[in-house]
Design goal:
Rossmann fold, alpha/beta, 19 strands, 6-stranded parallel β-sheet, 615 residues
Length: 615
């Protein structure tokens, strides 16, 4: 949704600033706004009532508006839009704006501001939202003149959608919304200094092809930039042509099909053994739209120690930020892959996939020997991994899955098979609890014909479940799987491993089995269908029942084993070589054990501790 500067139209209409805002939103193609009115933004809500092109969805909390806009954008690639009033309305958007910034989500947040003459006086519901959000927006505006509104809206959508996508804030004073103006479209705009590089440099492509040709153990390290660039098809073509194994980060789940033999899985703190070890043992990382996040690299100095690095990203600030690139390539991921594919299939640096046969066999051996697993459910224990695995199998790859943050997020990344881009939306960089329900709501608005599952923890769910009311009233029938372990599960896991099982402030219920709140009754109170599942034999039937209900939201309370843990795991701050695999009894992690493991690695498995896979 790029908007280039165009000649000013001679056809102008006299309007208020508020009318100009709504007409501008219609002109840029915005069809949905998630918002909540208040005094400073109220003038905009009057003409919004008359719009036949922009649907407004009234949320119950502004944070829900922001996450819904994120979910809308994640499901479609289009710019999501949210709106709030000044002061607390605007500050309630800060978390989703930061979330969108970390995960490169195209979003425009529109906020009302006190009248221009009152700015800086600590007026009622005044907050310097432009200053507050400056570090977490791609760009932001304070508009105090009605005449500027069309240009600013056009610029905001252009900036949010082009280059590295991200959030843009437009703060508009109340008097600007009330003032008389003229509306003409398209407006003229000029953004000096903002010229995202799309086409990669030919010399860098040749250098990258040279390294690929020379490599013996290359790995494609793929990040969320592939999804943002709509480059999944080009990536698949590159893999088929070269036979190079692939790992997809948390943000890139779905960018490459899980069913493909050469997909080694997700790397990082809770990545698969094959993906983590593939990166560690590689002699070349072909890094596409990824940023060497600490959750992927572990201890940075020991990450992929033998590998040269090709780092391709549309944001030049990311290249060599954490790991120095041998070949930096700035450009759009799709354009880069197209050029790189041509370079490695024709001419001097043409690659023979057979040259990587031994490496492929080695990597696929890790994948076969150490699959991501979990302890099987028993009649007494419902394992959360089993619930999520069955949910993915029954609902299928055409559905959209939107987890919250914590253990259930990692299990959703591990045990659902993703076959297409935009089928998985999550809070990756910021790790925002409360993301799931409103983001799933936004995804369902964007993709009404798809099944959309919010996969939430009982902790996350209680942060934003009020948006179920929004879903019911606006006919947005999402499905919610609450993975209820009575705990802040990921924090509890760390307390088990690192704090001698001292469970400080992680129990959400007064006792195991207590229901405060009762999620089935809560669902019923909101007008949803509430279901509960407590045993493995009921899992499939419960999911299928939820799948049959498509006129209202469904909430399933899955009461699961509270001591289940996310494995594999690399402890924070240690080398990825020290990956731990599921065991019947979770190990206590300490430095002595880590060092002992490092010394006792089984050479036959290239650094993977044997006898520790409990699946």
């Amino acid at each position: 949704m790029a908007h280039k500067a165009q000649p000013q139209s001679k056809n102008t209409t006299e309007v208020t600033g508020a009318q100009s805002l709504i007409l501008s939103l219609e002109a840029v193609g915005a069809d949905t706004v998630f918002g909540l009115p208040g005094g400073a933004i109220l003038p905009a809500y009057d003409p919004l009532l008359d719009s036949t092109k922009v649907r407004h969805i009234l949320v119950r909390h502004e944070q829900g508006a922001g996450h819904a806009a994120e979910g809308y954008a994640a499901a479609t690639g289009k710019v999501g839009v949210c709106m709030a009033t000044s002061g607390p309305g605007a500050t309630n958007l800060v978390t989703p704006i930061a979330d969108a910034y970390m995960d490169s989500v195209p979003m425009v947040a529109i906020t009302g501001q006190v009248s221009s003459r009152a700015i800086g006086t600590d007026a009622f519901q005044e907050a310097d939202i432009r200053g507050i959000t400056m570090p977490i927006t791609k760009h932001n505006y304070l508009v105090t003149k009605a005449d500027d509104i069309p240009r600013v809206i056009a610029e905001a959508f252009h900036i949010a959608a082009t280059g590295r996508p991200g959030p843009v804030l437009v703060d508009i004073s109340k008097d600007a919304l009330q003032a008389k103006s003229t509306f003409a479209w398209p407006p003229k705009f000029n953004l000096p200094g903002y010229h995202p590089v799309i086409k990669p440099h030919a010399k860098q492509i040749r250098e990258a092809a040279r390294l690929i040709k020379a490599a013996q153990r290359p790995v494609l390290y793929v990040g969320g930039g592939i999804i943002r660039a709509h480059a999944a098809q080009e990536l698949a073509q590159f893999v088929e042509a070269t036979g190079i194994p692939v790992v997809t980060t948390l943000m890139a789940r779905g960018a490459f099909p899980d069913s493909h033999e050469l997909h080694l899985g997700m790397p990082g703190m809770h990545g698969s053994v094959a993906a983590v070890t593939g990166l560690q043992k590689a002699d070349l990382l072909i890094t596409l739209g990824a940023r060497f996040d600490d959750r992927v690299t572990g201890e940075l100095k020991s990450f992929a120690p033998e590998a040269k690095v090709i780092h391709a990203d549309i944001d030049p600030a990311e290249i060599s930020k954490n790991r120095v690139a041998d070949v930096p390539i700035v450009g759009d991921a799709k354009a880069i892959i197209v050029d790189l594919l041509a370079a490695v299939t024709e001419g001097e640096y043409a690659v023979d996939p057979a040259s990587y046969a031994a490496w492929r066999e080695r990597a696929l051996g890790w994948k076969a020997t150490f699959p991501v697993g979990y302890n099987a459910p028993t009649s007494e224990a419902l394992m959360p991994q089993y619930v999520i695995e069955r949910l993915g199998a029954i609902s299928g790859p055409e559905s959209v899955y939107v987890p919250g943050v914590g253990q259930h997020q990692m299990w959703a990344a591990q045990f659902i098979r993703y076959e297409r881009p935009n089928s998985f939306a999550n809070s990756g960089g910021l790790g925002t609890m409360g993301y799931s329900v409103p983001a799933a709501m936004g995804a369902k608005v964007a993709e009404p014909d798809r099944v959309v599952w919010a996969i939430d923890g009982d902790g996350c769910f209680q942060m934003t479940n009020q948006e179920l009311a929004t879903c019911v009233i606006n006919n947005i029938p999402i499905k919610v799987a609450v993975i209820n372990n009575s705990s802040l599960g990921m924090v509890r896991q760390w307390q088990t491993l690192f704090y001698n099982e001292r469970y400080s402030a992680t129990d959400l219920h007064t006792s195991v089995g207590s229901r405060i709140p009762d999620f089935v009754k809560l669902a019923d109170a909101y007008g949803c269908v509430g279901l509960r599942c407590e045993s493995p034999e009921d899992v499939d039937a419960t999911i299928r029942k939820a799948m049959e209900i498509n006129d209202v939201p469904v909430v399933i309370d899955f009461v699961v084993e509270r001591d289940a843990m996310v494995w594999p795991m690399v402890a924070a701050g240690v080398s990825n070589d020290l990956i731990q695999i599921a065991k019947d009894t979770a190990p206590q992690w300490d430095r002595e054990e880590s060092e002992a493991l490092e010394q006792d690695l089984d050479a036959d498995h290239d650094g993977i501790p044997t006898g520790s896979h409990g699946a």
